[in-house]
Amino acid sequence: xxxxxxxxxxxxxxxxxxxxxxxxxxxxxxxxxxxxxxxxxxxxxxxxxxxxxxxxxxxxxxxxxxxxxxxxxxxxxxxxxxxxxxxxxxxxxxxxxxxxxxxxxxxxxxxxxxxxxxxxxxxxxxxxxxxxxxxxxxxxxxxxxxxxxxxxxxxxxxxxxxxxxxxxxxxxxxxxxxxxxxxxxxxxxxxxxxxxxxxxxxxxxxxxxxxxxxxxxxxxxxxxxxxxxxxxxxxxxxxxxxxxxxxxxxxxxxxxxxxxxxxxxxxxxxxxxxxxxxxxxxxxxxxxxxxxxxxxxxxxxxxxxxxxxxxxx
Amino acid sequence: xxxxxxxxxxxxxxxxxxxxxxxxxxxxxxxxxxxxxxxxxxxxxxxxxxxxxxxxxxxxxxxxxxxxxxxxxxxxxxxxxxxxxxxxxxxxxxxxxxxxxxxxxxxxxxxxxxxxxxxxxxxxxxxxxxxxxxxxxxxxxxxxxxxxxxxxxxxxxxxxxxxxxxxxxxxxxxxxxxxxxxxxxxxxxxxxxxxxxxxxxxxxxxxxxxxxxxxxxxxxxxxxxxxxxxxxxxxxxxxxxxxxxxxxxxxxxxxxxxxxxxxxxxxxxxxxxxxxxxxxxxxxxxx
Lengths: 313, 287
What we know:
Helix content of chain A: 25-40%
Oligomer: heterodimer
Structural class of chain B: alpha/beta
Strand content of chain B: 15-25%
Strand order of the largest sheet of chain B: 1-4-3-2-12
CATH class of the largest domain in chain A: Alpha Beta
Largest sheet of chain B: 5 strands, mixed
Radius of gyration of chain A: 21 Å
Number of helices of chain A: 12
Number of strands of chain A: 11
CATH superfamily of the largest domain in chain A: NIF3 (NGG1p interacting factor 3)-like
CATH topology of the largest domain in chain B: Udp-n-acetylmuramoylalanyl-d-glutamate--2,6- Diaminopimelate Ligase, Chain: A, domain 1
Shape of chain A: globular
Structural class of chain A: alpha/beta
Largest sheet of chain A: 6 strands, mixed
Distance between the termini of chain A: 37 Å
Strand order of the largest sheet of chain A: 5-6-8-9-10-7
Number of strands of chain B: 12
Number of domains of chain B: 2
Number of domains of chain A: 2
Order of helices and strands of chain A: HHHEEHEHEHHEEHEEHEHEHHE
CATH architecture of the largest domain in chain A: 3-Layer(aba) Sandwich
CATH topology of the largest domain in chain A: Udp-n-acetylmuramoylalanyl-d-glutamate--2,6- Diaminopimelate Ligase, Chain: A, domain 1
CATH architecture of the largest domain in chain B: 3-Layer(aba) Sandwich
């Protein structure tokens, strides 16, 4: 990623975070009013409820993440009272309303999400106060005494390896094919030779995704594959080394048009455009496994938000 | 005979809104490649000048390509962050890139003129992109015009279709537009009748604005950011507040507008042939 772009994003993030802090303070006052209801699991087992709080879990995450905590970062509490005892933890790619409903039903009131809750990079809510959907989601969170904490930047920064890609490599069974790329977000692989179409089918199955979109000849023989993140520059950087470029959340006028021209100009290349979730969800399954090594007082469950899309026949 | 400069002057005269000049970074309307003095042999309109579209232009002896997207895979540094895209690749990076080299060589070897025409077209009172898409879908008769004079005014995007299921609607659109990469959020068997139709990238603020109108079952649009309007719709569906979102893809949602541009140009450019050459859906999907 180009440094000027990073600084633009950084400044935007900082502004949005400042707005967010104001709104969060307001919600915490509201959320702190009620008494916590013990989870069905705790009640069923007849155990005394754990006193572990979300803030204590986050402190353990910071201790175990393998890099110093940095700012600005999106990784922070988005809603709820961090100092109330928690009943269980959900790890998810995106804290959609559906994931929150399933977490509440599972008795987990602490949700750790990789992506935003309120539909923008820094969960800016200042423009959403009159939005009926925002209020619906807020009421659901409040009624269920839920706490949401975002774990994005530092899970990618996790050392020895980016936690998201560790999970993705495991889901694909590609751990032994991985080699580090030039860009911190790019990951290059050398896989056993196959056709482009068979690679796409295998990936669709292993990632349990339904909305993959493809550019390139289905019969092309391929062996070198690389993630190229979200941006055109990353596509340009990896294309010379690989047969197949993987992107998610890359605007169509960038990757798809670039690869279409690459193919038209006679290069033997192909593109897989995954849903964002298909590129990162497995990394939150990994996050749940990782947290279990240092949080044992409450249950921890990976709840997939799933591919948001389906495609008609 | 008409030169490219005269062509632009004629467009400026007919567009009906004060002309917004080209920006210094070349990402707004004007000549991106070629000389203002060049004689126009024929005009192609398209959403994006892919190498394939450029080849078709040359083989039909047309040297001017009027497009909405710049040819170098970017909307540039000036693009609002709301578009969630990267800054333009630097000149140094582009010059070293073999894909861009192949395209640039083809453009110079064939003396092609690339003219971007987007912002001024969008500033017109009629949303030409919406009208083109509505026609391509065969939806003109379902348009909920606010008045007899309402010719696809930018804020009125509503259509009342014969009641159908979300799945049937999506299947019908896919077939009608002959596209592959169409994606849907919502329950396939939901009944839909009142639909909002937009093009390009749908932002959360756009969705909020559109849904202020009562009774909208679904939005059909180009694309949505997958941490913004896409999950906004997942949540709307989970909360029972809307039934679906259909994403056509950027190209599919904007391309018919280039057909409108071609028809409009024919009204005041009669010296040379004018043809709409769609770039086509870039994607294929697994069956």
